[in-house]
Structures are given as C-alpha cells and as structure tokens.
Write a structure and sequence with these properties.
Low-confidence stretches: 294-304
Helix content: over 70%
Number of strands: 0
Largest sheet: none
Shape: globular
Mean pLDDT: 92
Distance between the termini: 19 Å
C-alpha cells in the first residue's frame, strides 16, 4: 500500500475537534442532569431572538450547550474541508463527510427535541447520535495519525469467535447499552433493562480483555487499549452504582442537587469513553489480526506490533 503523507497540523486539529466533541457531550449531559431541557423554549432562536439571553439558571446549561454545539459544527466542517484538500485517501474523506452529516443531523434533532417538548424517542436519538458523532470525530483523529494503515503484518488468531468479531460485537453492545441509558435518563423508565445491559457488557468486556491477556499480552497494540477499556468499564460501573445511590438519596429534592448532577454527568461522559475505547480496540484488532487462520501472515515477533 502506498504510504500516506502525514500532516502533523491536520492530526492535531482533528484531535482538537475530537476533544471539543467530548466537551459537547459533557455539556449535553449537564442539560439533562439539571433538568434544563426546556429552559430555552424555542429554536433556533432563544426567547424569540438571536441575541444572547441572560445566562442564568437552566438557560446557562441549555443555551451554553447550543453555543458549544454550533462551535463544534463549524470546527467539523473546517476539518472535513481540510481532509478533502489534504488527505488523498478516499475512505478518510468519506468518514469526514459522514461526520459533517452527523453534526448537521444532530443540530436538527436537538431543535426538534425542543420544539416538540422533549419527546423520549427524539431525545434518545439525539443522545445516541451524539455518541456516534464523537466516535466519528475521534476516528478522524486516529486516521490522520502518522503511520496509520490497515495493511500491517497480521498475527494469527485461531480462537472461535475471533477477536476481530468479538471486538465488533462488544462495541455494538456498548452502543446499545448507551441507548438504554439514554432512554432511562430521558423517560425515567427502563432501569431494569439498563442494569441487565450493564451485566452483559461487563461479561463481554471481561472475556475480551482476558482473551487478549492470555493470547496477545506481548502485543502492545492490543494489550494497551484492552486494559484501558477494562479500566474505563470498571469506572463506569462504579459511576452507575453511585448515580443510582445519590438519586435515591435525593429523590424528594425539588431540583437536582450537585452530587446527582456531577455523578450522572460523569456517568455519561465515561460511557462515551468506554464506547470509544472499544471502537479503538476494534480498529486495532482489524489492523493487526488476520480475519482467518489460512489468510494469516505470521510475524516472528508479535510484541513488535506498533501501538
């Protein structure tokens, strides 16, 4: 495969956009955690005007979220244009185009959420698309990194199911779990399903990490993201339990108290990182592992695979 010329500034800018997207997820979580979803009751205007409203109370969170979203949208469009002009890989250009479409669709969903008074289906879709957009933005940061390629020498993986398949399934289950969490956050229903989903995701991640520890402990490209995924999931489970405890303790409070806001917002933010860690591990599995044993191009020193 022809080596792609690397642009350090493009990679750094892509990392910046991904970071801003993560900040946007936190801002969105603060809106829901503070019950501030309709603090600004219209869209795209704010109280019938395009002027800056008084940033007090719930307006601070709701309008602040809109401002950050608008900024991220502009940054994403600039990133996509830069990639189309600078990067010769067609598939990376299409990922960048998908990120632009996702951020535009996210803005529309956010507006519909307000105009139709927070319908659960639309609010959940808005939250889910936010997670997907974050993965797209972060993927662009990965793909623009120096040395990123898909034709690395492949290691054999005779296990069934293969790690390539297992990482895809695990990432999909994590996304479903985040959807269930969004349903619960926006409707107050479905906690049982969310808890069951947490158990299923935990089992899959534990199995995945164990497989990598046993078979590929000398391959940093797989081991490091696997350990990161396991650590983030452990933190996420702890935050989930903590969120439930503080919610039950303050369930009669007239408005969300700081412990509830902080814990639930952190739960959403770490959930996004768990999804991203699993996605990155999926990428690494497809970069360094052969799809089938008979197609494997075995390397003599598995530990030499790049991270």
């Amino acid at each position: 495969m022809k080596t792609q010329s690397h642009s350090p500034w493009l990679h750094r800018y892509a990392m910046f956009v991904a970071f801003c997207t993560f900040v946007l997820i936190i801002a969105g979580a603060l809106v829901t955690s503070n019950d501030a979803g309709l603090s600004v009751p219209d869209w795209p205007t704010s109280f019938g005007s395009f002027r800056m409203p008084r940033m007090v109370g719930g307006v601070l969170f709701e309008h602040g979220h809109r401002m950050i979203a608008g900024t991220v949208g502009i940054l994403t469009i600039i990133l996509a244009l830069a990639i189309w002009l600078r990067d010769s890989r067609r598939w990376v250009k299409w990922v960048a185009g998908g990120a632009v479409l996702a951020v535009l669709a996210q803005a529309v969903l956010g507006g519909i959420t307000v105009l139709f008074y927070l319908p659960v289906a639309i609010s959940t879709s808005h939250a889910t698309l936010g997670q997907i957009f974050f993965c797209l933005a972060a993927s662009l940061a990965f793909f623009t990194r120096a040395g990123w390629r898909w034709d690395e020498p492949k290691l054999t993986d005779p296990s069934v199911p293969t790690l390539r398949l297992l990482t895809v399934v695990t990432t999909g289950l994590i996304l479903v779990q985040l959807v269930l969490g969004a349903v619960y956050r926006h409707s107050g229903k479905g906690l049982d399903l969310h808890i069951v989903g947490a158990g299923v995701v935990t089992m899959f991640v534990a199995y995945l990490v164990t497989r990598i520890l046993i078979k590929f402990s000398q391959t940093p490209a797989l081991l490091r993201p696997a350990l990161l995924l396991g650590a983030l999931l452990a933190l996420q489970v702890s935050l989930g339990i903590g969120s439930y405890v503080v919610k039950m303790a303050d369930r009669n409070a007239p408005q969300p108290l700081p412990p509830v806001v902080n814990m639930t917002t952190a739960h959403v933010a770490v959930g996004a990182l768990v999804l991203l860690a699993s996605l990155y591990l999926t990428y690494q599995a497809h970069r360094f592992l052969a799809p089938r044993v008979e197609e494997a191009k075995v390397v003599s020193a598995p530990h030499g695979a790049a991270a």
